[in-house]
Specification:
The chain has about 180 residues and is mainly alpha-helical. The chain has two domains: about 80 residues, no CATH class; about 80 residues, no CATH class. The chain is about 60% helix and about 5% strand. It is built from ten helices and two strands. It has a two-stranded antiparallel ribbon. α1 packs antiparallel against α4, α6 packs across α7 and α7 packs across α10. It is elongated, with a radius of gyration of 20 Å.
């Protein structure tokens, strides 16, 4: 979801993902997402995962599915490396860990005229509407929703700490505090 300038230089895991996407395109003979706007691709990847987004309705060769799932997994720690591909090529079956569905809160949080039950789509909406995000961040709504709806206390504590330290950094100037929270200055 980061802007290109904020993604960094990339690493080996990113290269393996790109290799998997390239293999998929070679296997299908086309780019299955050609013409799809970047914002829609990001939304699909958040909702369904990269593998499901890239494969879509394409019929993949059965022999490649395991390898593609391993290379296109969204968790860089679980993504296959060259050694996994070598083992796979030599007949060793390595079942890639399937992404667990994101936890959904029973009660949604309302933001930007939408209701959200999960964190990742909300984070995308907040990124796209950062001027509106300040309200649910600074009034504690986000922290409480994460704490109660998802029971992720570490994340909620981190948000609370960030707000407190930002307030301390900016002092009494609310405009400075809001700018730091939404822009990271």
């Amino acid at each position: 979801m980061a802007m290109p300038s904020g993604r960094g230089g990339g690493n080996y895991s990113d290269d393996m993902y790109a290799f998997g996407a390239s293999v998929l395109m070679l296997a299908t003979g086309r780019n299955p997402l050609q013409g799809v706007p970047d914002t829609d691709i990001i939304k699909r990847k958040i909702q369904m995962g990269s593998y499901a987004t890239l494969v879509g309705e394409e019929r993949m060769p059965v022999a490649l599915i395991e390898c593609l799932r391993g290379l296109l997994t969204d968790d860089p720690e679980q993504r296959w490396a060259a050694t996994n591909i070598d083992l796979w090529l030599n007949g060793k079956r390595l079942t890639p860990i399937q992404a667990k569905p994101e936890s959904a809160a029973q009660r949604p949080i309302r933001f930007a005229d939408q209701e959200f039950h999960t964190i990742r789509p909300l984070s995308l909406a907040m990124y796209q509407n950062w001027d509106k995000a300040i309200q649910i961040i600074s009034d504690g709504t986000l922290e409480i929703w994460i704490r109660r709806g998802h029971e992720i206390n570490d994340l909620a504590d981190g948000i609370a700490t960030a707000i407190k330290s930002t307030t301390a950094l900016a002092g009494a100037n609310k405009t400075d505090t809001d700018d730091i929270i939404t822009h990271g200055y």
